Amino acid sequence: MEALACVLHAEKDLRIETVAVAPMNDDQVRVRIGAGGICGSDLHYYLHGGFGVVRVKQPIVLGHEVAGTVEAVGANVTRVKPGDRIALNPSRPCGKCKFCLAGEQQHCTDMWFYGSAMRTPHSQGAFREMIVVEEFQCEPVGDTVSLGEAACCEPLSVALHAVTQAGSLAGKRVLVTGSGPIGALVVAAARFAGALEVVATDLHDAALKKAIEMGATRTVNVSIEPGLKAEEFTADKGYFDVAIECTGAAAVLKDVIPALRPRGTIVQVGVAGEVPIPINAIVGKEINLRGAFRFHGEYALAARLIKDGRINVKPIITATLPIARAVEAFELAADRRAQMKVQLTF
């Protein structure tokens, strides 16, 4: 059995090719993919051939934000049945290493994550018409939401994990820096977690408008002075209880810390290269600085929240193109001024 897939051979060399569909064993599920979202990491692979030290060294099927319909199940599968619409968890931890056994599967030492060139051979992705998966990867999403909405489970899981890293947000003032797809979903996750106020920042008004749609109580365009340096944010040693940093831009922490109250928490979600950290300010204000990497248990929660309409992800989906126009979709997704989440249909 064969299926069409989006295969990246090198920087800007994305081809629609036929790939083999793996045989299915008694514990597996065959899924017909219906929708997939282009992530920032997919874009880095397409535009630059990788990011940091991670480089594409061999042809790789991209994609890890996907949803589809169950086509067949193995004899031992009980979680789903043919015809079920599912979101597909892209994480496949080993379940045996010390981190998996401690319930910290996102740090698995033998993780296979769809569409990742972090290891060689590369972990092939899910931008393909058909794929065979493990039963535990399938999260039913019912018949109410679209497969495009269901494909947003993965980025919503990242947002939910970031919010979890912040601790209780009930009644808190939260700053979200960067209102791209992840930032917008962090806004929604923070409101769901009980944040009293969520202020979102960005350089572009279009992104800030989406942040409002996702639940931000206020936005700040930081390309316009004074931005976060405004007296209302910096007076009395800072306004916010928690800052969730989604840009990865080197200059952002310098502006965030004065706006954060003493003993406040910064959760770093955005990734970049080397970033200077104002250690004296971290020490003087007793700031908690935490990272947030991927997710694990949050994926099932994300699927449930989208399925039940508790978090509406539709505002972040700004364009949908068929697989035959994948190159056009990737070029479109690179325009961050105009687009949030560009998706493919299969």
Description:
This protein starts with a strand and ends with a strand. It contains eleven helices and 20 strands. Helix 4 packs across helix 5 (181-192). It has two domains: 2-152 and 313-345, Medium-chain alcohol dehydrogenases, catalytic domain (Quinone Oxidoreductase, Chain A, domain 1, Alpha-Beta Complex); 159-291, NAD(P)-binding Rossmann-like Domain (Rossmann fold, 3-Layer(aba) Sandwich), CATH 3.40.50. The longest helix is centred in the middle third of the chain and has 13 residues, at 153-165. The strands form five sheets. Strands 3, 7, 8, 11, 12, 19 and 20 form a seven-stranded mixed sheet that branches. Strands 15-14-13-16-17-18 form a six-stranded parallel sheet, sandwiched between helices. Strands 2-1-6 form a three-stranded antiparallel sheet, with no helix packed on it. With 346 residues, it is α/β, with parallel strands linked by helices. Strand 14, helix 6 (205-213) and strand 15 (218-221) form a beta-alpha-beta unit.
Using the coordinates shown, work out and report the CATH topology of the largest domain: Quinone Oxidoreductase, Chain A, domain 1
Query: Can you identify the CATH class of the largest domain?
Result: Alpha Beta
Radius of gyration: 20 Å
User: How would you classify the quaternary structure?
Assistant: single chain
Helix content: 25-40%
Structural shape: globular
Structural class: alpha/beta
